[in-house]
Amino acid sequence: MGFFDNANAAFNKEAAKMSCSVKAASLGAQLKDLERQRETAASQLGAALYLHFRNNPETRNIFEAMFNRVEDVDEQIRAIKSEIALLERQNSYSAPGKRVCPQCGQIVSPKDIFCSGCGERVEQQPSNTERENCCENCGAPYEPGQLFCMRCGSKLS
User: Fold this and answer.
1) pLDDT tens digits for 24-53?
2) Cβ pair 11, 3 in contact under 8 A
């Protein structure tokens, strides 16, 4: 029976190692989950503290650099959203009936009077002849001061 005893001992030793590995993997997964929960809670806490203290002159001085960084990032986000909305508006005139809400950038169907994304009232899409500041080549709208059409590249007059 020495052979079976040795095989049984080896099997038990490997089973114990495997059990430890499974337990370690389970604990590792629990740890990752708890770390994600902590990161979310810390982020929520930071956002709440920012909102609470950003306009308080006493705490504003202490955290000035951090408040300014958040405000700078917020401004960059607003600028990029505005640029995206402009590009979507320019593209929306090329697709028949497709419009973009000027408030939130949501695509609005031609029959909608209000935006489904934010509730903003949206104007009916004007025809090409009613629009000012439109490219003569493709009909895309452009901002005053632009020299070339963003859609077709034609020189604007």
Assistant:
1) 777 888 888 888 898 888 899 888 888 888
2) no
